Batch of 4 targets.
Target 1
Amino acid sequence: MSEPLRLLSVGAHPADIFDQSGGTMAHHVSRGDEVGCVVLTHGARVHDAVISAEMFHRDEVPEGSELEEMMKERSDVKVEEVRTACNILGVQDVLFFGADDAVLLVTPETVKRLARVLREKRPDIVLTHFPKEGDGLTNAHAVAGQIVMHAIGFANNVDPGDRNPPHRVAQVFYFGAGAARLRSTLWDSEGGYYNDVFIDITDVIDRKLASLDCLVSQGYSGAYARKRIETNDGAFGVAAGSAYAEGFISARAETHHYLPLTDLALKQARSSDHENINRYTYRLPTD
């Protein structure tokens, strides 16, 4: 592209905005594109070291008001972790909706709020969850993807009280992780979804690891971060012909003036089998 692009990553939970697309966002920031993020829920119930882990083994949890205060404190911790993680990737613009992650539903209020963000930020590309991830009904990631798609549709129209003009998003890329990986549940049998876009993030994989290490509150730091990168980004990398990659599912087909051919595809075609193997077997140091 000859002009800078605007990207917006929308996740259901705090970690979602970058653990599946952090390397991609880092690339676009480095290129001079505008990259922003929206976190729909506070995420205090999900994987949290106190609310999720410690409470699980107690005889009883604190009474309502005390528990709500604890959740507020934990959500504040997550906000700071996410801001620090995104800063490592070069992303400064992060908006937190703060919705309770107990039951995430498609509601007019959330859709309209996000649509207003879209009219204000005017992103060319939106990154978000696949709307049919898991069972497509109760899966919070899937619901988040559905909220985003409703908001994208509504952003095309005017909304009384919003002075920003309508905005049309050029392309949506769904996170590949959780939607087009290995089948592991009954709902995956609906499948057939596949990653048609891979972004080689080998050059920024150390920064993505550092960002995951910030998520101490939900146990993502340390060994888990390294395990996740090897099993997710490493597997995507093998499929893409690189050491590490992030996979995406594009929402719609694209039109080109010429047949598209990436630099990596041409490089692979002009390399021997051993050269290609050496390229994607590089492993991030675990120290």
Note: The first strand starts at residue 6 and ends at 11.
Target 2
Amino acid sequence: MKPVRIFQFSDCHIVEENSLAYDVVDTSAYLDRAVSYANSLMEDVGPVDAVVVTGDLTDHGRVAQYERLRGMLDRLVVPYYLLPGNHDRRDNMRQVFPDHGYLQGGSDEINYSLSIDDLTLLCIDSSVPGASHGELTETTTDWLASQISDLGNRPVMVAFHHPPFDSGVGHMDRQRLRDPSRLFEILGGHQGPHQMICGHVHRFITSQTPAGPAVIAPGTSHAVALDHREDGASAFRMEPGAFLMHSFDDRSGFAGFTSEYVPVGPFDGPYLFYPDRQ
């Protein structure tokens, strides 16, 4: 199979025009740069098959915010797919993206499956309307179990918003995914390669869970402050915005996932290390 590559954006927190998130962050300017930079990398790392955006698309879930988000994401040169986070509203997502059929399912939750060559991407909804923490409803876990049971040993990536493990940042861990045991049971029983990707913490963090590897993506603009003190404040820092590139490749004889941190440029270069040898 050819390598499958997916860019993961997360926690864009888009607000209305002439507004700043938390009165500090021009989140739209940062996302616009991320889109431009991602497009510029397609030839260098490509082909890239899709972009998945793992929640907190907007800051308040308002229609005008989704409309602004759409104006930027529509510039991507590959298809993109959305998931809600705790800052989002499913009804307004569906209103602004009516042509994204995967958002228009029959249940309240937004759960859908994508086949990308020999990889299956399963996107599940961990958002709880009106709450900051995450949960997986019985509807969602039953859907996930049904999907997994039909996949045999096919490679699987499962995307959602709230991480299923502690990050060490106390105020974020209090609003992580609650009781991931059923998720771990379902995914842990899958015989093929599998990986979980999520967001919410605005930092690049990886963990080995009972169901295999899980990766938290950074935010496209601001980062939750790196503070592991028990009484650490709920705060953020203006670290560089970034996104992830996930790849699945079996050409070496070992079928597995890799995840790469991509700070948003542009940056000077590339410079040849030894130009006289070229």
Note: The mean pLDDT is 95.
Target 3
Amino acid sequence: MEAAIKLMRTPKACYFYDANKNSIIEISAAEHAFLQGAGKIDEASLDGFAHLKELYGQGYLHSLEVERVLNPMTPYLGDFLDRCLQKVTLQLTQNCNFRCTYCTYTHSDGSQRTHADNRMTFETAKKAVDYLLAHSIDTPEVYIGFYGGEPLLEFPLIQKVVEYADGLFPRGKLRYTITTNASILNEEITAFLKGHRFSVVISLDGPERIHDKNRVFAESGKGTFGVVIKKLEEVYRKEPEFFKGLTLNMVIDPSNDFDEVLSLFAEYPFLQECMSQMSVIDDYFTEKKNVVSESYTESMEYQTFLGYLYLLNRIREEEVPAAVLGRIKGIEDDTYRKYQPKDGLGKTSAPGGPCVPGKSRLLVTYDGKLIPCERVSETSQALCLGSLETGIEVKKAEELLNVAALTAEACRKCWAFGLCSSCIKYADEYGELSAAKRLSYCESARANALHGLYEQLMLRECMG
């Protein structure tokens, strides 16, 4: 096989990324040109390139050394799932008072999920809390998340679950999370969330015109922005410290001008007091795919450039839009998390992408099924890990953890092996795991990996 490398160049220099070593190596223009035209690389082929020959002797420029695609966590999977769960997310209801156009519930044909009146009983919620307690013995801090539909439609159930859970877990070990549209927030709910260590994420997609384009009330079809912003203003006025701990989740429609999206913070400056995060609409489960406007691309690139300047200490943090900062700061985190050099991948390894199914954010559906997380299909038999009655089936979790075995031959030829972002949901086709479906995401995964590498090069070159 050919060397597991990806050639790159910037206006300043030439490089290659080596998949075995997870390292970016600077090379000369002549070396770059040679590698670009080379087929299979061996020591003899590198005569005349002393630097490359030295690198080859150190283990660079080889084909992937992986002979068996198997996640190294596999032998420990049973222990992780038995003793190290970090979070359960409770699907309290499948109902919602909103009908957001991009929501998988709204657009579903039944292959993913649908809005319904199904609700979780307190008995099921108790079993989920008990399951977390019994399977998190070695986890120092655990979380219970509340999910829907709109979870605050079931506020009395939330109160009962919190009271029950607080009586079980050691003091300080348990925290709570909730994602809400905020439309039914009131003083009682706010006081409760504040008093019980809740991390609260509130959905707000931009100024009124943009937000109301996609987020409307179920009964009237009218926009929801006015109600949501009023609720946020009330929390800010009455509970300013609690407000600072909120996170605004902005789901961006890339057909809009990104500067117009960010105008939300100029129109309502108090929103800059809390945290913000953003993501583009996930159109994976919808028939309608994203359309990216030129104005979105231009303004997004400029605001990202400001974020880079902040990372390089050229401008102050306040000069970067709050919604951009989260992703920008993540670039620094990636430097220490994803791009640390390795001695090699070894004979047995697996691509990046799949997490340990269920360990980090196990979803418990309203009827007690166990799903790896809320981002995958809850109706797919292939992705169901078990139930509260049976527990997580380790063999099923092992199959999902090692989903790359479906595409092992292709994975072992891919330079993005260790940087792959292919979640198990990209292998799910009508309730079965599909190699063809998984391979269809490879181009996007490689593009994501290459973008991350160029961000690392940008930091390296600008920081000297």
Note: The chain is about 35% helix and 15% strand.
Target 4
Amino acid sequence: NISRFVPGTIIDLENYVCAYPEIKVSKGKGSKIKVEWAEALFRNLSTREKGKRDQIYDKYFYGVGDEFIPDGGRQRIFSTFKWQAGRFMQLLIKTGREPLILQQILLKETHYPYQFKGQFRCSDKEFTKVIPICQRALEMCSHDTYMDCPYYERLMYVGDSRLEALITYVYTGDPRLPKKAIALFDYSRKNSGYTQSRYPCWDQVIIPPFSLWWVGMVYDFLMWQDDKEFIRQRLKGVHAVLEAFVAGLNEKGLLTAPQGWNFVDWVEGWDEGVPPEGRFGINAAINLQFILALQQAAQIDEYLGENEMALRWKRLAQRVSQAVIKFFWDAQRGLLADDLAKKYFSQHVQCLALLTHILPQKKKQKVIKGLLTRKDLAPCSIYFSFYLIETLAQLR
């Protein structure tokens, strides 16, 4: 019966997997075999609500995959040119006039060959449970490049890659993938000086704050690895990025929002992750991130013996820092505002102010108190939470 479908068989792999599927069949001429993948099943397809990721009952399977068409021969092996990803597989078989013998299904797992050397110990057992999940996430997002996600875009973004590289240094000590990421982003630089936000990618998207995080990636490499020549090769790129931002300084010493997608974090109420006045105006978070990059570049130049350039970056950092405090400080709240009108306030700005160490002691203490106690600050999402944790670590 050529119209007969075997009901979809859903396989729970019980972990996230990136793999090449391999199917061995015999006979079954006229049959069709579909192997589809999903990260999780959906409670509601229209809203894309998933609920608990490990549950499958009363949910819909909606995924991507491959279709194989047997020719009726014996022990035919089918695979794919590109690997697939997810936790759940669905097997759909449509038979023809000839019986199909499904002999074997294999998954050939693929990811960057990390050798994990770091260890984590904690008295809180809940944290101990999280570490294997984090390790698996790093593996699944590491292939020939880092990537934001193995299931959807499979693109290497600067904002994600900086954190992935830091974890790689700490947990493996292997510098090869971080070096490749840093070099590729350097190669992606446009004539403007900005790096592309994601690379390699045929579709060019510029996120200016990500160019500043790329300077942070070079700085991180300096802090974690002993490879002076590689740092020297990146110096031209570091200078080009900073000069692109210097061109946007106004007469007050503040940075006007650069042209591009000035993404900072996925915050509810922020338009596509762009903070208040971050699209065409003047935003404190972008200014503070610029200060942080200037400080990092100064250390890079000092390391390479370029003391004159280091002094220039320090002077610029001081100039912008003074302007940020002058125009964004709200004495009534004891916080730095996001915008010049002092209407919006966020955790992001307070974190960056503390990470850059630009505040006088009295203002610093007020910002610390506000960051720890105020509930009306725009909160960091999981993406920016690393910088929140870095800030809290300084307050110990």
Note: Residues 232 and 345 are 39 Å apart (CA to CA).
